[in-house]
């Protein structure tokens, strides 16, 4: 691939159109220039020319022709990762421009537990102040929401993370603002034999049946890490579910144990549904962050939300 000066590359980039950028995405999705041409309603020669234009503008080989069609090279995949957010932002801009409401829509990812407590408090206060932005809420695992944010499908995330996630190169394009800290507690039914005990040992918990989140979740890794740090095998899940309040309801009706965020356990404990066990081990904590994309839209409502979550974060964690 020939080398071009910065000015020459800039000139070539200026001649690219949206269809050029869509081509990279479609080749990755379909594995074929022909299929991409059909999706773009273009002829094969036109798409081939677009591929050459892209490679000249990026000054790199983006496509690799194969016997089965075409695929992206390493440079092509890297370009696509950067472009996905821009393409998603373009889609959002088109949707917003066609909407009857002029106020921009903020797409926010929230964890189920924060949507029960922290989010309602923030929404109430912003509504009373007349500064509540228009929002669309989405719920998924922390990792899934970060991926959606990375791809431009969300504008912000109120998520639980650990230091390893924040430092991950995969999310170097994201900004993290600390909001609060939520713990994790082991809960049982109020009439469970362990509820009458203080300073329960981890070894004793291994004899119980557990409701735990799926293996891919942050909370499940925290549970397993707590036992492994004590040189004990992690408990096996009798039931797997990431719906914390449903898990606590099942615990209330059975002799099973679960681990859930402190805010969820304390709320259920106050209602007489569960009992939080006191363990002979250091407490577990989750940090909650307000996360945005560095290259994402700088809507005024995002700053309003971040500031509101930070104000309420200090009072979020029950004692």
TrEMBL record:
<keyword id="KW-0804">Transcription</keyword>
<dbReference type="InterPro" id="IPR050950">
    <property type="entry name" value="HTH-type_LysR_regulators"/>
</dbReference>
<dbReference type="InterPro" id="IPR036390">
    <property type="entry name" value="WH_DNA-bd_sf"/>
</dbReference>
<dbReference type="InterPro" id="IPR036388">
    <property type="entry name" value="WH-like_DNA-bd_sf"/>
</dbReference>
<feature type="domain" description="HTH lysR-type">
    <location>
        <begin position="16"/>
        <end position="73"/>
    </location>
</feature>
<dbReference type="Pfam" id="PF03466">
    <property type="entry name" value="LysR_substrate"/>
</dbReference>
<dbReference type="Pfam" id="PF00126">
    <property type="entry name" value="HTH_1"/>
</dbReference>
<protein>
    <submittedName>
        <fullName>LysR family transcriptional regulator</fullName>
    </submittedName>
</protein>
<dbReference type="InterPro" id="IPR005119">
    <property type="entry name" value="LysR_subst-bd"/>
</dbReference>
<dbReference type="InterPro" id="IPR000847">
    <property type="entry name" value="LysR_HTH_N"/>
</dbReference>
<keyword id="KW-0238">DNA-binding</keyword>
<comment type="similarity">
    <text>Belongs to the LysR transcriptional regulatory family.</text>
</comment>
<keyword id="KW-0805">Transcription regulation</keyword>
């Amino acid at each position: 691939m020939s080398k071009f000066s910065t000015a020459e590359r800039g000139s070539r980039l200026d001649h690219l159109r949206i269809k050029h950028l869509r081509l990279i995405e479609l080749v990755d999705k379909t594995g074929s220039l022909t299929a991409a041409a059909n999706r773009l309603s273009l002829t094969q020669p036109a798409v081939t020319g677009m591929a050459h234009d892209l490679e000249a503008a990026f000054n790199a080989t983006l496509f690799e022709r194969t016997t089965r069609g075409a695929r992206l090279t390493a440079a092509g995949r890297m370009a696509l990762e950067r472009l996905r957010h821009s393409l998603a932002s373009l889609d959002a801009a088109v949707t917003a421009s066609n909407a009857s409401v002029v106020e921009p829509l903020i797409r926010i990812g929230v964890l189920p537990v924060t949507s029960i407590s922290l989010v309602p408090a923030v929404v109430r206060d912003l509504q009373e102040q007349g500064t509540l932005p228009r929002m669309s809420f989405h719920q998924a695992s922390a990792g899934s929401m970060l991926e959606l944010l990375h791809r431009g499908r969300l504008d912000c995330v109120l998520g639980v993370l650990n230091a390893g996630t924040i430092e991950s190169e995969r999310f170097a394009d994201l900004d993290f603002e600390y909001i609060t800290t939520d713990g994790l507690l082991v809960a049982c039914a109020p009439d469970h034999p362990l509820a009458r005990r203080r300073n329960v040992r981890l070894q004793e918990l291994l004899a119980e049946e557990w409701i735990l989140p799926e293996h891919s979740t942050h909370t499940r890794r925290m549970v397993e890490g707590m036992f492994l740090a004590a040189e004990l095998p992690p408990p096996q899940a009798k039931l797997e579910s990431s719906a914390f309040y449903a898990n606590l309801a099942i615990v209330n009706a059975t002799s099973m144990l679960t681990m859930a965020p402190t805010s969820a356990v304390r709320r259920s404990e106050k209602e007489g549904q569960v009992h939080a066990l006191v363990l002979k081990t250091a407490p577990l904590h989750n940090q909650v962050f307000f996360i945005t994309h560095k290259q994402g839209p700088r809507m005024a409502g995002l700053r309003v939300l971040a500031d509101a979550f930070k104000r309420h974060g200090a009072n979020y964690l029950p004692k």
